[in-house]
Amino acid sequence: MDYDERSVRLFLRGYPGQFVSARVISRRLGGKRRYHEDPLWVVPILNRLVDKGVVETDAQGHFRLKKADPLDARKRTWLSPQVKRILERSAKDFAKVIKIDEDEEELA
Fold first, then answer.
1. Which of 15, 22, 37, 48 shows a CA-CA span of 20 to 30 A to 9?
2. C-alpha 39: how far from chain center
3. How do the domains of the chain map onto residue ranges?
4. What pTM did the predictor assign?
5. Which has more confidence, 74 or 81?
């Protein structure tokens, strides 16, 4: 990602869950001079971010960051085999919270 794409992402992080128009983004992000030269300078950058799947758009052409899947963090969580054994020996059911792979080899 280049500087402008990172700037747009950081700007949209300030508006969680809200759609923001391209004009507002270009005016607040680019400054007065850049906005007066080209009021829609940010549109190609936003279109690239939409293609990459980072930003989503609505029917009016406003943009927002895509919401992160709350299960994504859990999918990337890694447990050691020792922790896995401890959890399996306990009487509690952690299947809803932690995905335990059945096909991994047990350590002796």
1. 37
2. 27
3. 3-65, 68-108
4. 0.63
5. 81
